[in-house]
Amino acid sequence: MAKVSVIVPCYNVENFIDEALESILTQTFNDFEVLCLDDASTDSTYSKICQWAEKDSRFKKRRNGKNLGLIGTLNELIKWSDSDYLIRMDPDDISEPTRIERLVYEAESYSADVVGSSYIMINSEGKEILNSSLLLPTQHKSILYTAAFNSPMAHATVLYTKEYINKFLYGNSCFAAEDYDLWVKSINEVEEQVLFRNIKSPLYRYRIHGSSTSNTNRNAQINSHLYCVLLFKKNNLPRSYKLGSSYVKIMANIADCYSYESMSKAYMEVSSVYFEFLEKHSCNEIDVLEIKNYTSEYVLLLIIRGLSNANLTSRLKILFSVFFLFIKYPHFLTVHGVKSIIRRSIGRFLYAKS
């Protein structure tokens, strides 16, 4: 039995599957198997998977009798594996050569249940989208904090233990945000017994193209995202839960949410989450620093979204409010936050021009 199962849900990815599996073949860690489950593809994906299985016995293949969708296919892959660790891999992405080795080392060093990493975005041709690397919080407490705003782990990058994922599996209540639902569900049920970690280095290349789930299921993803935010806050941050989550609507670019009033409410909501979380949790210096940096980046993104979508009068009011915001909440402005926003803005601009 292999120590690690790399689970690969496959559907109509004939243009990318070879490159994805090649990146697993060249890993520095060798005690693995690759479980490829084709979800009734209508192109040559399954044929290519069969070629890999014939070439290397560590690559194993199965095919669903009918299309089950991502959640159903992931749960079948989890049931199929007998390994101690399972590592997610999307069939159109690329793993860095040391990815498996470093994920396993991190999990064993900290007895972590779920380990993820930062990642780099690439386009359909595999070209890096400049300045797109997302450096995520690395510590357990700061990762928990981000669940009040977004999915706390980058789904495609993660390793989880067989014990953890067998207990929870993926649910069907959050289409296109099945990972967020999984993390929140496990946090709500056994927060003190589940340990999350992130590796700061980007070990994964996440491909953005027209048929990506993040592109084709945008509306469903927004609704599921809001559901998970509120579910996490209801169980973990009850004071903040009562205030709502208008900041999610602003970040999701939902119309009619860019007035001065809505922006001010979003600031208040974020501040409430920040203080309530720190009151509830005993955090070390690294936790607090990562929480501050994440909050700073999030608030600055809120301001940019508000300014870019509001009318002229609201823009002036928002700018005026920003001045007082940073006087009242100086923790909302950090060097990391400013640098991150500049880097990501440049990256988005260059990508739009390419």
Tell me what you see in this structure.
By secondary structure, the chain is α/β, with parallel strands linked by helices. Helices cover 53% and strands 14% of the residues. The chain has helices at 17-25, 45-55, 69-80, 99-110, 140-146, 162-168, 178-190, 213-216, 218-236, 238-243, 246-251, 260-280, 285-309, 312-328, 335-353, and strands at residues 4-10, 32-38, 59-63, 85-88, 94-95, 114-122, 159-161, 196-207. It has an 8-stranded mixed sheet with strand order 3-2-1-4-7-6-8-5, with helices on both faces. The protein is globular. The termini are far apart. 43% of the residues are buried.
Secondary structure elements and their pairing?
Elements: E1 4-10, H1 17-25, E2 32-38, H2 45-55, E3 59-63, H3 69-80, E4 85-88, E5 94-95, H4 99-110, E6 114-122, H5 140-146, E7 159-161, H6 162-168, H7 178-190, E8 196-207, H8 213-216, H9 218-236, H10 238-243, H11 246-251, H12 260-280, H13 285-309, H14 312-328, H15 335-353
Parallel strand pairs: 1-2, 1-4, 2-3, 6-8
Antiparallel strand pairs: 4-7, 5-8, 6-7
Helix pairs in contact: 5-13, 7-9, 12-13, 12-14, 13-14, 13-15
